[in-house]
Amino acid sequence: MTIAIDIPQRRTLSAGVRLPGIAVAAVASIGAGAIHAAAAGVHAEHPQLARLFVLCSVFQLGTGLWALVQPRRLAAVALAGVNAIAVGGWLITRIAGVSWIDGLQEREAAQFADASCAILGAIAVGTALAAVLVGWHPGRTQRLFLPGFAAAAIAIPAMLTAGTHVHSHDTSSAASGDGSAHVHSADEAGAPTAAGGDSGGSGAGAGAGATETTAHTHDHGTQTTTPAGGANSTETTVHDHGAGGGDAITTAGGDSSATEPSVHNHGGGSEAPVAANWPRPWDPTKPIDLSGVANVTAEEQARATKLVEDTLLDLPKWADTAAAIADGYTSIGDAGTGSEHYIKLSIIQDDVILDPTQPESLVYTVDGDKRTLAGAMFITSARATDDPSLTSWAGPLMQWHNHGNLCWDRDASGVAKVVGIVDADGKCASGVNTGGANPMVHVWIVPHPCGVFAALEGVGAGQAAVSDDQRVDMCNQQHEHGATPEPAAVPTIAYDPTKPIDLGGVAGVTPEQQAAAENLVAVTVVRLPQWTDYKVAEAAGFHSIGDALTGHEHYINWDWINDDVTLDPDHPESLVYVPQPDGSKLLVSVMYMLPDTVTLDQVPNIGGALMQWHIHDNLCFTTDPVAPRVSGVTTSQGGCPVGQQKFRPAPMIHVWITPNACGPFAALEGVGAGQVLAGQDHLCDHVHGDGLF
């Protein structure tokens, strides 16, 4: 007798019966797992959070593949459980922070990548539960094309976004007020494609479109950072990333500044700050304190603080210029200013601003052959520097500026370089003027006496929507706006070389000192024009030191420095020209130099407080025996790199035959100001300089 034994057929997707929904749940879980895998790598700064992403990815991918291979109720239960945990965790981080997970202490706003991952997880939960509840049903083989295509359409863009990890810097809206970033605009027609830099940098464009960005909160505990002393050295420190401090330092492109913070009061009446004014000296080893600044909202302060935190964390990956070059950054050739800007042209046209993982420009402090990463320079698309989308981002904490006076050209390799500045008519002697329509702002990761968002000094400060005395990113102000200055003891006259010279009205200057200073200016104005043609000067033995990039080109007669003739316009040691668009040069000043055996405390006191001598003790020159040229600045030890030379400093003073905002004896600004006698501040004679421009 034959006994029939009924052996149940193993149920698979092709056996004529199926669990409705399990295939969709599996595909959705795989998509969510892929997004978590992409996000894990960019959260490496928080190992605990990165490991959670990896675990979540493994379970979502694993249960998804298991359900596809063996579509059983147990697999559906696992799918539902794993993805429910993932979605629940995501919801918690959007409602409140998770104090015990490094990197999730603060609530984050939903962004595209994490929201897409949560949507796929929710789909997996719902369809998996449906499969468990409905059970086995007759049906044809499950077709995976449509659910697979839909999951890929969501997951792939989310993976790309999670992998690049664009920072929104705040859970609230971005500068535009709606969370949008900005698309970098195209360059001007015919202009070289280059973004700009201070003291030799200007933006060719950064952006105006909108994009959602992934918010990221950094919890700064013990970590490796780049200290101010060197970009390649590291130290383990607890970072609160703060303001404060007041040590005088020589910062990117500027002179050694005083330790006293600048005093600004842009508010009025009852809106005066409740704490110290802004800007305040910046020290990244101390707690960030952007509080107490008039007219700054809580949201603006939070965004600015977050930006500083993220910059301190993310920027040191480019501490070595080799890493920056490998990542597509190129120098704009402004190392001679003391700061060198590296620009990444490939991201000028993107849709991201104020993102320390994608800065448009990196700023390095130059010390001979050494480059120390000092900060980032973020650049926006073409707009006014007082555009509300910018001014509302951090309020009075930030001063956006641009560089509308720079001339760009390409070198022999086709790389865009700054080659000079425009003349009084806005024309370039060579190259083209571009980038002035692009606002920019610094964020420093090294100490800076004028604040974490400070501009460079001198020509590097660029142009802003407000006058220099109202800017909150400059170190040379100590004022309260609206205060009424005390009247001068005697009537004063602004210096105008076309009129009789009158340098009266300066306290402490004796009649003899005033007369001596006036006589020196007058004879210089009359006699110096004999050197108007720089070719005449060259024929007499003058040679350019190659500093036309700064906007002022010095010609020096090296044989006349140590002779016995001083303060003589017929026998000057140095002539100062401004390059013109037609290739000519406009004579604007003389620079009288004493022998290099004279020190600053031995200079003749012929003008008293009207005149301030200075030296240049930090410049390196080429070894050309006839016409040495400036090749950079000295190392931290005061020496020059091999193949360069340093000269003994000779005291010098300018006498301008053209109007100057700081009077007839003004030094240049920024690195051009040189060094003055210890204990002195650089002199700016506003009594005879204000109102000329």
Write a compact overview of the structure shown.
The protein is of the alpha+beta class and 693 residues long. It has helices at 22-41, 47-69, 73-95, 112-134, 145-164, 298-314, 321-326, 388-394, 511-527, 534-539; strands at residues 17-18, 137-138, 222-225, 235-238, 241-243, 282-287, 329-331, 339-344, 361-367, 370-379, 401-402, 406-410, 416-421, 432-433, 440-444, 463-464, 543-544, 553-556, 574-579, 585-593, 619-622, 630-633, 644-645, 652-656.
Explained architecture:
Helix 1 runs antiparallel to helix 2 (47-69) and helix 1 (22-41) crosses helix 3 (73-95). The relative contact order is 0.09. A five-stranded antiparallel sheet has the order 7-8-9-10-15. A five-stranded antiparallel sheet has the order 17-18-19-20-24. Mean pLDDT is 75; it is low at 1-15, 164-276 and 476-490. It has 693 residues and is of the alpha+beta class. A hairpin with a 7-residue loop joins strand 21 (619-622) and strand 22 (630-633). The chain has ten helices and 24 strands. It has three domains: 17-164, no CATH class; 239-247 and 258-470, no CATH class; 511-615 and 650-673, no CATH class.
